[in-house]
Amino acid sequence: MTASLRKTLIEAGRILAAEGQGDLIWGHVTARLPSDPERFLMKPARIGLEEMSARNIITIDLKGEKVAGAAPRHNEVFIHTEIMRVRPEIQCVVHTHAPHAVAFFSLGKPILPVGHHGAVFAGWMPVFSETTNLIVTPELGRAVARTLGPHAALALRNHGIVTAGRTIEEAVMYAVTLETACKTQLLAEAAGGPQAVTESAEIEAKRGRVFRADMYRSAFEYLARRAQRRKS
User: Fold this and answer.
1) All domains of the chain in start order, with CATH
2) Considering 45, 79, 120, 209, which has the largest number of Cβ atoms within 10 A of its Cβ?
3) Which residues contact 9 (CB under 8 A, 6 or more apart)?
4) pLDDT (tens digit, 0 to 9) for every residue of the chain, 232 residues total?
5) Which of 72, 61, 71, 33 lies closest to 138 in space, CA to CA?
6) Beta 153-156 vs 127-128: how paired, if at all?
7) How many CB atoms lie within 10 A of CB 189?
8) How far apart, in whole angstroms, are the C-alpha atoms of residue 172 and residue 12?
9) Backbone angles phi, psi at 58, to 5 degrees
10) If you write DSSP's letter for every residue of the chain in order, what string do you get?
């Protein structure tokens, strides 16, 4: 089970990097250990998301302490610990500096259902604005978790995004979908602002048909294959 989890976590890093969310050595992703829910696997610091391997992935506990692995941990580990502490159903947390999301949320505007991707986040997307600095203390981590609430994603203003999923595939695809939604709306904003968006009655239908759990899993698997093709 742990070997399979490590493999999927490695694929997650490759996907996020391939989708333009790598930002050099910054950004991180974690996966809760099914056999020990108070510990989780984490991408180590000082390497790119796509450079994770079965050997360099580290293990962290809910205090943010490294309990296994030789590589250093990220200072922003508390994004992960505090979300996982209050959300036992969450199995994976992603934090990246997705460029279109950072640019979009600097506008102070809500996400609109300009396309299918925007429909996922329209009407509920929280924005954390207590600081634009790094989340390097448990107190800030708890503040991020409070802002996230029961949701699957939030924006860290002038910083990046955080997504949380019941699976690795779900958390990663929320990150990919959010970045696409922001990119699409930025294009519309640059052309004068959206003049037509999805009607509210159709938003739920889109969410249920296009972005089901099985569709996210299939999309993740496709992106993993595409990242592997690019690598080879």
Assistant:
1) 2-231 (3.40.225.10)
2) 79
3) 29, 31, 41, 43, 52, 57, 168
4) 689 999 999 999 999 999 999 999 999 999 999 999 999 999 999 999 999 999 999 999 999 999 999 999 999 999 999 999 999 999 999 999 999 999 999 999 999 999 999 999 999 999 999 999 999 999 999 999 999 999 999 999 999 999 999 999 999 999 999 999 999 999 999 999 999 999 988 998 898 888 888 999 999 999 999 998 887 6
5) 61
6) parallel
7) 16
8) 6
9) -110, 165
10) -HHHHHHHHHHHHHHHHHTT---TT--EEEEEETTEEEEEEEPPTTS-GGG--TTT-EEEETTS-EEE-SSPPPTTHHHHHHHHHH-TT--EEEEE--HHHHHHHTTT-----SSHHHHHHTTT--EE-S-SS---SHHHHHHHHHHHTT-SEEEETTTEEEEEESSHHHHHHHHHHHHHHHHHHHHHHHTTS-S----HHHHHHHHHHHS-HHHHHHHHHHHHHHHHHHH-
| Sign of the Cα pseudo-torsion (200, 203, 208, 212, in order) | negative
Residue type, 90: I
